[in-house]
Amino acid sequence: MKKSNSLKVRFLGGVGEIGKNITALEYGKDIIVIDAGLGFPDSDMPGVDIVIPDITYLTQNKDRIRAVFLTHGHEDHIGSLPYLLKELNIPVYGTKLTLALVENKLREQKIKSCNLNCVTPKSVIKVGCFSVEFINVNHSIAGSVALSITTPVGVVLHTGDFKVDLTPVGGEIIDLARLTEIGKKGVTLMLCESTNVERDGYSMSESVVLDNLSRLFSQNRYRRIIVATFATNVYRLQQILNLAYKFKRKVAISGRSMLNVIESASKIGELYVPENTLVDVSKIKNIADKDLVIIATGSQGEPMSALTRMAFNEFNEVTIGKNDTVIISASPIPGNERNVYSVINNLYRNGAEVVYESLENIHASGHACREELKIMHSLVKPKFFVPVHGEYRHLKKHIDLAKELGMKESNMLLCELGDTLVLNGKTIKKGEPVQAGDRYVDGLSVDETEAVIRERRIISDGGIVVVVCCLSRVNGKMLQEPDIIAKGSWLTIEQISEMKLIVQKVLENSNYKKTRDTFALRNSIRRKLRDYTIKKTKKDPMILPMITEL
């Protein structure tokens, strides 16, 4: 086999979509993986809990994979790691908080032995032919890094998720000096996030959020305050804890993921919980409203989250009332808007005052807007560029932005799931694609195909119709009238009676007595009934004929 002198970048997730970020870099016999994230199901994925990447290509090449490098600890970057590690025994590198959150996920999945390696910004890790440097960046979670990867064909810079925050509330500012140095030495390829490319200007600083939260605490001095935010936004959690301490309030935490993050972050020193501040949510009945803050999950309107259950009066410990101010310190993830506003409407119905992003600046995005993206391009000055971490329109807009900055169109590529980018240092092109896509997690089971989802979509739209036919084993004739059971369908009693007649006619005209071909008979019944239901109801239910011989 002829040895290739090209670097291959394989996009297994995170391009043409929000979330599910995972990229593989391959040279010769060595492969490294950047991130292993999850995505959240769309409304047309009934019963699906999370969506994870199809890692068939990685499992087929497991002996060549040297390590996984994590840019930060958000779910869309670490959420599928437990599923990957069940199939691949490889080392994982990440910063302190990132690995603490990973350990939580591994415990939940009962994965005991993993090779986790803690790194700090400016660390350099060598695996195979790759040398990976971690560079501090600002994001909405501590320990976020960009990766400068030295390969045999040049340097690949992966920005991870970042923003340029010159007044962060925690940690150091983005290491612009190091990015400048790397850019001066020469970057062959930059993979840069694109989430906020449609937003002009700069992202808001976390310090602005702190000022606004402080004002809201002051204005609501005699009311109970409930704050919903992302569990992994440790900086925001620290702000709320500090404000609670300043205003002499106790803090109750509601939501398992929130408790896990606070426990993990405080254990490793990334979060400071003031002494005697926390109180169990089950013991808040006797605490006056003015003396209490509740931090809750549910900023995205998740059905089983603490805030959603409070809004719909399904949370035993907390009853929403007229003396509550609910602060939703997060912006809706695209696709979640309906759920979020449903929760807000119900909070208002219960008498609460609700403060959310469209009313106040109480959430700062962790993603770079256009001017910050321009800064990254100007400092790094890559020879080649591929936008990542965004839907197709985001990637296209990012290409347009790079063109505005003077980059040649021939030096940029738009990639989608499964695409392989081939780079030899002088040229960039697309190679043979690899298998990529979605795997669906429902409870503890993982399904790798679309079949189950298609069936659920059909049932959710048209219902299910079961047809039971009892035939004679001797002569194949009907022993009794067919029985039809319809659930979740739009069928009337009269229509079901007509369907029974259709089934009887199919049975009478079939050649079943001679062939005994139950498969062909079921298909005939299914086709005839499907034609009838579409014509009469404009719906296409799942039809399940059952043939029983007696």
Q: What is the strand arrangement across the widest sheet?
A: 7-6-5-3-2-1-20-21
CATH class of the largest domain: Alpha Beta
Count of runs of 4 or more consecutive helical residues: 16
Mean pLDDT: 90
Which structural class is indicated by helix and strand composition?
A: alpha/beta
Major beta sheet summary: 8 strands, mixed
Per the CATH scheme, the topology name of the largest domain is Metallo-beta-lactamase, Chain A
Unreliable residue runs: none
End-to-end C-alpha gap:
62 Å
Give the count of structural domains: 3
| Rg of Cα set | 28 Å
- Indicate the overall shape: globular
By CATH, the architecture of the largest domain is named 4-Layer Sandwich
Record field, number of beta strands: 26
CATH superfamily of the largest domain: Ribonuclease Z/Hydroxyacylglutathione hydrolase-like
Percent helix: 25-40%
* Beta-strand proportion: 15-25%
Brief synopsis:
The chain is 32% helix and 23% strand. The protein is an alpha/beta fold. The protein has three domains: 7-201 and 365-447, 4-Layer Sandwich (Metallo-beta-lactamase, Chain A), CATH 3.60.15.10; 206-355, 3-Layer(aba) Sandwich (Rossmann fold); 463-549, Ubiquitin-like (UB roll) (Roll), CATH 3.10.20.
3D structure, described in words:
- By secondary structure, this protein is of the alpha/beta class.
- The chain has 3 domains: 7-201 and 365-447, Ribonuclease Z/Hydroxyacylglutathione hydrolase-like (Metallo-beta-lactamase, Chain A, 4-Layer Sandwich); 206-355, Rossmann fold (3-Layer(aba) Sandwich); 463-549, Ubiquitin-like (UB roll) (Roll).
- The chain contains 16 helices and 26 strands.
- An 8-stranded mixed beta sheet has the order 7-6-5-3-2-1-20-21.
- α6 (206-219) packs parallel to α7 and α14 (493-509) runs antiparallel to α16.
- The longest helix has 20 residues, at 518-537.
- The radius of gyration is 28 Å and the shape is globular.
- The termini are far apart.
- The mean pLDDT is 90.
